[in-house]
Give the backbone structure.
Amino acid sequence: MSGSPVGSKSSVRARQASRRRMRVPAFWLFVGPFLAGLMAFTFVPIGWGFVLSFFRARATATPTQFVGLENYLVLLTSSAFQQALLTGVAFTIFIVPLSFAGALGLALMVHRLPVLSGASRSVFFLPAACSYVVGSLIWKMNIFNGLPFGLANSVLATFHIGPFAWVGTVNPPLYWVVLVTVRLWLQLGAFMIIFIAGLQEIPRPLYEAAAVDGARPGWQTFRHVTWPLLRNTSVAVALLLAIGAVQAFDEFYNIFAGLSTGAGQGTAGSFLVRPPMVYLFNVAFTDADLGRGAAGTFIVTAIVVLFVIVPARRLGFGREQRA
Amino acid sequence: MTHRRVSRGLRWLPRYVVLAVAATLFVVPFYIVVRGAGMTQAELLSPHFAWLPQDPRYVDNVEALLADSGAPVVRGLINSFVVAGITVAGSLAFASLAGYGLARVPSRWSGPVLYVVVLTLMIPAATSFLPLYVIVSYLGWVNSYQGLIVPALFSAFSVFLFRQFFLEFPREIEEAGIVDGLSHWGVFRHLVVPNSIGIYLSLGTLTFLASWNSFLWPLVVGTSSDMWTIQVVLSTFITAQIINLPSLFTGALVAILPVVVIFFILQRYLVEGFKRSGISGT
């Protein structure tokens, strides 16, 4: 509470009382518009979607027939959905450690650079301004276009390797190179910035004390000073990376649209590689089955909560920072 | 003295070499776009990789792109500017009001409301997009600006960061206003907002980039081509059967240009925004 203005006791009390009368509406004046919007466009939809996931809702947004858990069971036993979940997990397992190490590495190198620190930050950060559509376009249409004169194949040709049909190659799955590198290019800079912010919060005297204690600069200092003190930032970065990876959509959609899965795939939409979000997009909009699509989003949500948010909270995410 | 400086410089040398290689790799994709936007289809399909266009055709390519009726690039840019502009203005207004209310207007409801905001932060985007489509189609907003804009106006993330910022806002300034007889609204309007331009620019830049670059929602809501944002237009280029490569790269250049300009003008605020978004998690 703020200190009360100078005045006689009764006038203070009167003013506090009048302020309290004013306060209740004032709070809702400030918070009300946002809260109403949040209810209408986040909580009501989620509630409706949850109801819809127990109904048949084909080509309609209103439930038609109660089917219980059918939507969930059909999805969980569908090999296409299992395949999509597996793709999502594999992508997360590839991209999280690579992005984490890359962003931390860049931050450690750029942070406290004597010359060109700002310029190198800008270079790595600039792709964060680009969209996944633009990244996919550059990767699919030029760098990894699979033609002998694409950039990657041209460079490899000088070493007498290749050429490879990157996106279309399933065995070995070279398309992972395309998917992983485009996301690295797009997101490393932003996470580098977050790591730099974390590094700047580590008090310099701690490094001086470590040096006095005989820790050599480099690995020893990193292991015993930087890493433990960067823990909160690291957990936050890992969490954000994992949530983003599980929900990947844009680059998969744009890179693989039009590339057929071949025969035997029941669901509409021909995608060579689909993460869960692209699969659900196909179910909801290509097959126009919103009930089943809604069930799928709650399965993906459960996976994110159980395997990403709960472990991150165990590691201390969201708790007050310990000094 | 110079000796020491030279040896200190040498210590940094390996780091600069690694950074130079990494920086080159990061710049290559931009170079690919700028290069492709100045070439002809024949040049781009030539089996010999050319580093630069022989005879730069930027003006011709832009003209050809704008004249192409199958790819509504101009309409896409206008739609993206309208959507991103209104989203930034609206979400900053709603979020700063709510953030200030939570930070500075005492109420027994501030605890529960803050809890709801933090809970919303934990909801993955994947959870809400399909249910949101159901609501938006129920409201008849598919294929409309309302459908593209309104669901993005209520950002729990921005509310949370505004609240964190206003908690640290100097109380003395506000108390001076209260002594002068200003209401909460007056204090906010005349004292808090003018002294908080930095946070507005930070979150505004972040919101603009997120809106300009978003793809899944515009793809779902904009079913007819006159409601496509620039990202959806570009996506149709990638997935088209017959691909006009110069138009493709010219389109990418046109889509990147506004964000690159904003990036360089407001980089300081954007960096600040990303820092806050990381710290908010710790």
